[in-house]
Structure to design on (415 residues):
């Protein structure tokens, strides 16, 4: 299998060739002829194939990293040894089936955690001062590796989280966010000794709550006692991917009624109804583009968002000169662009007829609020007869668009 670097280098080279061909045709003002169109399509198809290979290689690397056992190397003096958090976490889980070792119980004691307590807290991205000895706040760091795996899973899932503004808070208290529309106010031209007229900015606010989500996993005693498997990383990846999937779905299509509000729900109508995915036109894309205020179009957060099913057709779209609107990125890891605006693929965006299929605008105005204090709960009695331990992660989030009436994100309806 090709190395990740070779694949990335090859993709960059192909993207440059595609853009060079596009620029050459653009300079000539004659549009693509049949041979040039065929060459460009062949390059784009190879880029697509490489993107698939890169995804496979990255997933293989992630699985390999999870299979490696990380060991703490202790100094000669036992009282200076760092806390073995991995073993402490295993001991906390195994205590429910009576299989924790003395070393694991000692590490739990050093963390200030009782083996019998039913839940522990994991802070996601929040800062808290902690000592390495016995302390009551230690429970916030016992699951560092698991929390790291959960965080990695959230980032890797992409979608709406890749584009929006993520705000993390330590608690789930209501979080009001101010909004204002100052587009009608302007500075005044004054004559000498002229009087300045006061201008008021009307502020409104949007309040973000904290809806609770849960992801569970049942683990056997044999798996917990297998020291060759980094169980905390594996569990974190499993639980984190499920949380990420739920977060993305609700932040995309949530109704806002007793659940988070999704970007599809909050987006305004661009007034554009697409003929169909296979018959989408250059004019339709241009109309969507210009339905957004230039202030939002010029923002770094401005992007297109749609499901993968639309990529095939948008990649083939050309302007009035026959030049492709889709421009492959020449920087590894950077998104491709459409009309020079980045593209975010989000599988939770609807793609069927009559749905809000294409979104465009400033996605930095869409906020995903997460409570950093994830809670890991242990379920012992429920699975005791199976010699298993149940684990549940509770996470809280909310989402919504900061829109003071200026419609930073709009949608086009699929015909």
């Amino acid at each position: 299998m090709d190395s990740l670097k070779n694949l990335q280098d090859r993709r960059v080279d192909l993207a440059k060739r595609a853009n060079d061909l596009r620029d050459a045709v653009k300079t000539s003002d004659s549009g693509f002829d049949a041979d040039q169109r065929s060459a460009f399509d062949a390059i784009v198809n190879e880029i697509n194939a490489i993107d698939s290979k890169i995804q496979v290689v990255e997933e293989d690397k992630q699985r390999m990293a999870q299979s490696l056992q990380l060991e703490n190397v202790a100094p000669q003096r036992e009282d200076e040894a760092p806390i073995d958090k991995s073993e402490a976490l295993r001991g906390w889980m195994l205590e429910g089936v009576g299989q924790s070792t003395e070393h694991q119980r000692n590490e739990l004691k050093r963390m200030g955690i009782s083996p019998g307590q039913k839940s522990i807290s994991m802070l996601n991205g929040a800062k808290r001062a902690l000592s390495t000895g016995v302390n009551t706040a230690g429970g916030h760091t016992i699951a560092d590796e698991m929390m790291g795996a959960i965080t990695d899973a959230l980032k890797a899932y992409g979608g709406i989280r890749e584009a929006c503004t993520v705000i993390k808070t330590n608690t789930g208290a209501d979080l009001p966010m101010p909004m204002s529309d100052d587009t009608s106010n302007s500075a005044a031209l004054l004559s000498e000794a002229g009087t300045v007229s006061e201008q008021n900015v009307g502020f409104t606010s949007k309040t973000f709550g904290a809806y609770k989500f849960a992801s569970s996993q049942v683990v056997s005693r044999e798996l917990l006692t297998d020291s060759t498997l980094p169980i905390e990383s594996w569990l974190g990846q499993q639980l984190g991917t499920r949380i990420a999937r739920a977060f993305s779905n609700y932040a995309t299509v949530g109704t806002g009624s007793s659940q988070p509000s999704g970007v599809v729900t909050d987006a305004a109508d661009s007034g554009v109804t697409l003929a169909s995915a296979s018959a989408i036109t250059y004019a339709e894309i241009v109309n969507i583009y210009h339905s957004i205020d230039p202030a939002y179009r010029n923002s770094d957060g401005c992007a297109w968002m749609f499901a993968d099913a639309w990529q095939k057709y948008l990649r083939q779209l050309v302007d009035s000169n026959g030049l492709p609107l889709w421009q492959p990125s020449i920087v590894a890891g950077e998104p491709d662009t459409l009309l020079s605006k980045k593209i975010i693929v989000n599988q939770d965006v609807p793609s069927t007829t009559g749905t809000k299929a294409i979104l465009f605008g400033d996605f930095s105005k869409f906020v995903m609020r997460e409570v950093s204090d994830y809670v890991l709960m242990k379920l012992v009695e429920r699975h005791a007869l199976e010699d298993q331990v149940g684990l549940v992660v509770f996470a809280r989030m909310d989402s919504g668009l900061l829109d003071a009436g200026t419609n930073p994100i709009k949608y086009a309806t699929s015909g």
About this structure: The chain is about 35% helix and 20% strand. The longest helix spans residues 34-67. The CA atoms of residues 7 and 53 lie 8 Å apart.
